[in-house]
Amino acid sequence: PSSCSSRSTGLLPASTVRLDREKISSIGKLQRRAEIHSLYLQQNRIEKIENLDSFPNLRFLCLAGNRIQRVENLQDLPHLSVLDLSHNQIRVLDTEELPRGLQILDLAGNECTWQDGYRDLVVAALPRLLQLDSQPIHGNTAEGKAGGGSSSSQEEEEEEEDEEELLPELRIPFTVDRDFFVDLHRELAGRARRRRRKTLEEHRERLQELMERRALLLGP
């Protein structure tokens, strides 16, 4: 059985390591790589999450399509925002093992998603979560902040910054769950459009009010 060692291709950013479809059976101890932000390990034979503390600044981790049975050893990844563990063999989910900063989590295709109250349990454990198993989360802390009272242009800029930080992989090929990221992109864009529409409506109402007041002051 093989163990993974880091490599990347010239087509990807230097902050990305791609080791998908390499018949990897375990994640060996690697040299510390603080510059790595994205790690692809999908479609391998990995049975255990381990030794990822070699990438302390990891933001994006894809372990879809492996043989993982437990969520564990992720607490040393405080910056992790996107975690794809879909289509593994996770029967029971321990939410205490999930990094609290996660904003996107995919566990589809695991038996743990059949548990009673699964979705509520995960949402309660992850206050910044925006999307779970390709479905948006409503009313969470991250969304509440995004809906604050800033101007339309400020909101657009914040939306773009959030999307760029969350999804650096949108600009490079992605081979697993492409629709998942397309849907997320659409959801974020939809939120921005709704806020712009509301701001425009408020602007028009205010303009109408001012015109009516002006007409009253000037008289017939």
TrEMBL record:
Recorded superkingdom: Eukaryota
Annotated Acidic residues bias: 154-167
Keyword annotations of the record: Cell projection, Cilium, Leucine-rich repeat, Repeat
Subcellular location: Cell projection, Cilium
Protein name (Swiss-Prot/TrEMBL): LRC46 protein
InterPro entries linked: Cilia_flagella_integrity (IPR050576), Leu-rich_rpt (IPR001611), Leu-rich_rpt_4 (IPR025875), LRR_dom_sf (IPR032675)
Gene name, Swiss-Prot/TrEMBL: Lrrc46
Major localization listed first in the record, in broad terms: other
Disordered: region residues: 136-168
Protein's organism: Oriolus oriolus (Eurasian golden oriole)
